[in-house]
Amino acid sequence: MQLERKNKAKGGISTASMPDIIFMLLIFFMMTTVLRQYDGLDVILPSAKEISKVDTKRHVAFLWVSKDGAVSIQDKIVPINKVRDVAYGLRAEDPQLVVSLRADKNVAMKVINSLHSELREADALKINYSATTAVN
Length: 136
Hints:
single chain, alpha/beta, five-stranded mixed beta sheet
């Protein structure tokens, strides 16, 4: 004859405090996370009559050019003769890369031409020119 136990031990983890822990983690990550924004250089963009937005910023590398010819790629100051190396590295990481050129409206065309040739050498042929809308 087999005897049954009256008290069966229940195994398991108590989940009563789980929502408290989740909210504490959520608040912690919200307070400590820093969203990255590209500041770039001090640039006054040229105006355009018709502009279109880039669908996604996922495959975009920002290239800033100030009026004195300083070049910044992804928030790093780069000499013009090193743009090819940086752009080639970015293209190797992301083959769908689009370079968003944000040049000051007073920058010399000589600088833009040299940037074009550097980007062409790096095989970064997809270029987006940033501008502001013209105010009527």
